[in-house]
């Protein structure tokens, strides 16, 4: 999602395929006005791009299978697009959003109406700008309720609340990414993380700026957690409370009860919270998991879970000791840092790829994306200079309609290995396997879960490890 030092390698296998289709009906329509607005956090005031002046932005509510029309008016200073993260959008790629992949940016003074087609998704997703780093401030939740007459596959919660984890930069995010692209180095790290837009109690100059969730004793709440942080996987926990995860990426899972979650950027989780501890104030904390040796924001954002009713509240909310696993031109050789897949570093074209495809424009992309790593080295061992200087290109892999596809994402030890999220547009996929070290074509497939794998749209590839996913290529485009 961001600009990071990471090498990934992948394989694609084709299996036998099937298809599915879905009827849709019209849901609510929304108007998004993109404009700069003044915000103050950490005693720093800046103008930043927002939707309707909100940070985080407005919530989209739909029911499963509906279609929402979202008209975006750009009153900002530069071109922006919006992506509906995790919405499969059957046969509707023109409304997916990635800048110069499926559309040109919406220019200042212009408008564009997205037709967002929901099909099998149910639960929580999110939307965000898909132009440079504008998603840092331009994002918000998508809540997909069951169809009318249907209920959740768990007892109806007393109430629901969205919890959005975000990043706060004291500087301007556009300047920040422009600076990084110009120098070839890593962008500045964030100054704080936020919960529903507020950094919380543990930062300097951040008093009065903490999000409070008020609950009633004995009731159960559905928390819809979105990781909208720019780069870091985040831990999230609530002091003395268990979390029961019931869905991930708008797909139900077998419930898992845990003290804390780790959530990758782009992922969403639906969590049941039973408010059954002694009435008091409890801290919620979120801090990053980070296993790379690049610089990162190691701060902790907080919010308060506050029981309603009459009781003497402690002067400080009860803390939680958030569990942290062992964490352990400025680019190489005076060059630029670049991410690559199969030794190809993607170059964003100036004409969007979808348009080039439908209008048969040549010279925008080539169809020779390699299906296997061009050169097998010990990906997770002593990698030498392999893929440090990848080739650059706008390469695509064409896939036939109906094919079942398996992709192995192999993290590499090139430069600074790290846990890194991968996200697929237009599909959810089954997470069928993962492991540390190199994927072994002979032995690793035997470890796959082909019985009840979770269906997700974003997955963290472990540091120096691999993930195997499968999906059906059942979502072709449309003229
Ligand atoms: C939403 O917009 C679509 C397309 O413009 C229109 O057909 C539909 O009637 C609108 N729905 C509502 C509820 O306004
Ligand atoms: C990034 O950090 C450097 C060093 O602290 C600072 O000089 C620069 O202004 C920062 N850039 C932005 C866009 O905030
Ligand atoms: C808060 O300010 C103090 C004193 O300037 C500094 O030592 C500390 O690192 C700051 N803490 C954070 C989280 O920025
Ligand atoms: C926070 O606390 C400091 C010191 O007590 C005070 O000066 C300041 O006005 C308070 N408010 C904000 C928003 O920083
Ligand atoms: C965060 O990083 C800074 C700078 O590397 C370091 O000084 C500080 O001790 C770290 N804090 C925590 C809580 O790890
Ligand atoms: C992680 O930390 C635990 C407890 O400190 C230790 O027992 C374990 O060996 C560590 N694991 C790794 C992979 O470093
Ligand atoms: C997209 O293309 C336009 C020209 O059509 C260009 O100005 C813009 O920089 C491109 N965006 C990216 C992210 O490369
Ligand atoms: C790859 O490198 C790892 C880590 O150094 C090592 O444990 C492993 O044996 C190597 N594998 C091969 C096939 O050389
Ligand atoms: C990697 O490349 C650099 C310069 O490009 C060279 O100095 C260094 O010896 C190379 N390292 C290896 C292990 O090949
Ligand atoms: C990657 O591509 C570059 C540029 O074509 C080439 O020099 C390099 O050898 C390739 N590396 C690997 C590991 O395939």
From TrEMBL:
<feature type="domain" description="Plastocyanin-like">
    <location>
        <begin position="374"/>
        <end position="478"/>
    </location>
</feature>
<dbReference type="InterPro" id="IPR011707">
    <property type="entry name" value="Cu-oxidase-like_N"/>
</dbReference>
<dbReference type="InterPro" id="IPR001117">
    <property type="entry name" value="Cu-oxidase_2nd"/>
</dbReference>
<dbReference type="GO" id="GO:0005507">
    <property type="term" value="F:copper ion binding"/>
</dbReference>
<feature type="domain" description="Plastocyanin-like">
    <location>
        <begin position="36"/>
        <end position="146"/>
    </location>
</feature>
<keyword id="KW-0732">Signal</keyword>
<dbReference type="GO" id="GO:0048046">
    <property type="term" value="C:apoplast"/>
</dbReference>
<keyword id="KW-0325">Glycoprotein</keyword>
<feature type="domain" description="Plastocyanin-like">
    <location>
        <begin position="161"/>
        <end position="310"/>
    </location>
</feature>
<dbReference type="GO" id="GO:0052716">
    <property type="term" value="F:hydroquinone:oxygen oxidoreductase activity"/>
</dbReference>
<keyword id="KW-0439">Lignin degradation</keyword>
<dbReference type="Pfam" id="PF07731">
    <property type="entry name" value="Cu-oxidase_2"/>
</dbReference>
<dbReference type="GO" id="GO:0046274">
    <property type="term" value="P:lignin catabolic process"/>
</dbReference>
<keyword id="KW-0186">Copper</keyword>
<dbReference type="InterPro" id="IPR011706">
    <property type="entry name" value="Cu-oxidase_C"/>
</dbReference>
<keyword id="KW-0479">Metal-binding</keyword>
<dbReference type="InterPro" id="IPR008972">
    <property type="entry name" value="Cupredoxin"/>
</dbReference>
<comment type="similarity">
    <text>Belongs to the multicopper oxidase family.</text>
</comment>
<keyword id="KW-0964">Secreted</keyword>
<keyword id="KW-0677">Repeat</keyword>
<protein>
    <recommendedName>
        <fullName>laccase</fullName>
        <ecNumber>1.10.3.2</ecNumber>
    </recommendedName>
</protein>
<dbReference type="InterPro" id="IPR034288">
    <property type="entry name" value="CuRO_1_LCC"/>
</dbReference>
<keyword id="KW-0560">Oxidoreductase</keyword>
<keyword id="KW-0052">Apoplast</keyword>
<dbReference type="InterPro" id="IPR045087">
    <property type="entry name" value="Cu-oxidase_fam"/>
</dbReference>
<feature type="signal peptide">
    <location>
        <begin position="1"/>
        <end position="23"/>
    </location>
</feature>
<dbReference type="Pfam" id="PF00394">
    <property type="entry name" value="Cu-oxidase"/>
</dbReference>
<dbReference type="Pfam" id="PF07732">
    <property type="entry name" value="Cu-oxidase_3"/>
</dbReference>
<dbReference type="InterPro" id="IPR034285">
    <property type="entry name" value="CuRO_2_LCC"/>
</dbReference>
């Amino acid at each position: 999602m961001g600009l990071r030092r990471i090498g990934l390698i992948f394989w694609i296998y084709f299996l036998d395929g099937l298809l599915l289709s879905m009827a849709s009906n019209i849901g609510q329509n929304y108007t998004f006005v993109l404009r700069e607005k003044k915000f103050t956090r950490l005693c720093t005031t800046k103008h930043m791009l927002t939707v309707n002046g909100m940070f985080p932005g407005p919530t989209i509510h739909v029911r499963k299978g509906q279609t929402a029309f979202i008209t975006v008016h750009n009153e900002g200073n530069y071109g922006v697009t919006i992506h509906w993260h995790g919405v499969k959008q059957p046969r509707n790629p023109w409304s997916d959003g990635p800048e110069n992949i499926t559309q040109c940016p919406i220019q200042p003074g212009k408008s564009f109406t997205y037709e967002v087609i929901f099909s099998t998704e149910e639960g929580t997703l999110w939307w965000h700008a898909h132009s440079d780093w504008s998603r840092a401030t331009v994002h918000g939740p998508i809540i997909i309720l069951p169809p009318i007459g249907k209920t959740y596959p768990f007892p109806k919660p007393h109430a629901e609340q969205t919890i959005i984890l975000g990043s706060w930069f004291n500087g301007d995010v556009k300047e920040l990414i422009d600076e990084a692209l110009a120098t070839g180095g890593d962008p500045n790290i964030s100054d704080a993380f936020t919960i529903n837009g507020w950094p919380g109690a543990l930062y300097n100059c951040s008093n009065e700026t903490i999000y409070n969730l008020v609950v009633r004793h004995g009731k159960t709440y559905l928390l819809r957690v979105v990781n909208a942080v720019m780069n870091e996987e985040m831990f999230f926990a609530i002091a003395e409370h268990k979390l029961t995860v019931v869905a991930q990426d708008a797909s139900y899972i077998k419930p898992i009860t845990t003290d804390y979650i780790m959530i990758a950027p782009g992922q969403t989780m639906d969590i049941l919270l039973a408010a059954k501890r002694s009435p008091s104030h409890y801290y919620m904390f979120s801090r990053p998991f980070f296993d790379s040796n690049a610089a990162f924001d190691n701060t902790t954002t907080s919010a308060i879970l506050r029981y309603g009713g009459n009781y003497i509240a402690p002067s400080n909310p009860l803390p939680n000791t958030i569990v942290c696993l062992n964490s352990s031109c400025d680019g190489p050789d005076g060059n630029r840092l670049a991410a690559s897949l199969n030794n190809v570093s993607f170059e964003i074209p100036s004409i969007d790829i979808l348009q080039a495809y439908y209008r048969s424009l040549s010279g925008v992309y080539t169809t020779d994306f390699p299906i296997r790593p061009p050169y097998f080295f010990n990906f997770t061992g002593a990698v030498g200079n392999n893929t440090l200087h990848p080739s650059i290109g706008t390469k695509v892999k064409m896939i036939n309609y109906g094919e079942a596809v398996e992709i192995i994402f192999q993290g590499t030890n090139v430069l600074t290995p790290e846990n890194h999220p991968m996200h697929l547009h237009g599909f959810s996929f089954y997470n069928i396997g993962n492991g540390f070290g190199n994927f072994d074509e002979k032995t690793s497939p035997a470890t796959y879960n082909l019985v009840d794998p979770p269906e997700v749209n974003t997955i963290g590839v472990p540091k120096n490890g691999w993930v195997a996913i499968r999906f059906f290529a059942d979502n072709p485009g449309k003229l």
